[in-house]
Task: structure prediction
Amino acid sequence: MSAHSIPSVPRHGAVLAAAIAVCLAAAPVSAATIGVVAPTVGPYAMLGQQILRGAKAAAAAGDTLVPIAESCEQGAGKAIADKLKQAGATAAIGFLCVETLSESLPQLKEAGIAAITVSVRSKILMEDATRYGWPFFRLAPVDGEEASRLAEIVLSKFQNKSIALVDDGTIYGRELTGAIRQKLEAGGIKPAFADTFRPGQEQQLALVRRLVKAGVSHVVVGGDRADVSVMARDAAAEKAALTFIGGDVMRAADRPVPLADGVLAVALADYATLPAASAAVAALRATGSESDGYTLPAYAAVQLARAASVKAASGKTSIVQVLPGLAVDTVLGPLTFGADHELAENPFRLQEWRGGAFQPANVERK
Result:
């Protein structure tokens, strides 16, 4: 695939663009030149296709998309920045890899080109961007936001419950529960039980019985969905009234043990189910395309870039100056970047497994 071509949307691409423009009643159409930095070959090619698909679907009449292949290799970022400058881009979206951003951002700063990532969560990179004034904006969660939201929910929803923290011994599990514990204790809640379990087991009866003996009611798990499924099944078999709460890794395949209704997760929403995305999802499906992975985040990133380009042009200012504080209605709902170039609102949400899918949680009965 050429680095300068976007894969065509299957069947009636022109119809797709027109349908989405009509259905979404998008912001006033104004030509914008937007780079789309995404892998086209290699192990991340499928993710790159999702980004390209979403960007093309979101592009308005007159917009110019500049697709640039992202190799995610050291040393490639400078060439990507050069291509964006040569194309006259005012913004670029995509950017799956830290390497690409860290190498291209200094040059993008010189050119006044805003970089909106849909993937990179590195807190250190944003700290560097703040220090050096790089035009880096993040449409992805930040490292640590998952733990922050989990702790916030426990403190606000379950403050009168007996809480357990268990992890699977992995770096992810230990760091997640460790960060949650610090925040809970700072908020006046001391977990009644903490332990490390052995992951990948066919049963977790011993753990369930220890939890019951400790008198806990809510169990925050730093571990995979499969392990949580086993715990919930074994708790039901023991008639133990335990509510299990997992993290974003709960958005995984429902096997080998089906997840029981009532299990909670603090995770990113299924974007395709959001009301704001319904028209775009329908239009994509009408042309044989799905709204999976990074498709809708890339769509939203183009909407943000275009809205900022319109405002910057009307005010004869820089898109980098306009983006912070600019509220834009997107397929992911209303989005705003704060002064720190992060999303103004933590994107993790409390969800409950019901009827074979995660849905907004109703915790009043918990």
Summary: The chain has two domains: 13-141+273-335, 145-267+349-360.
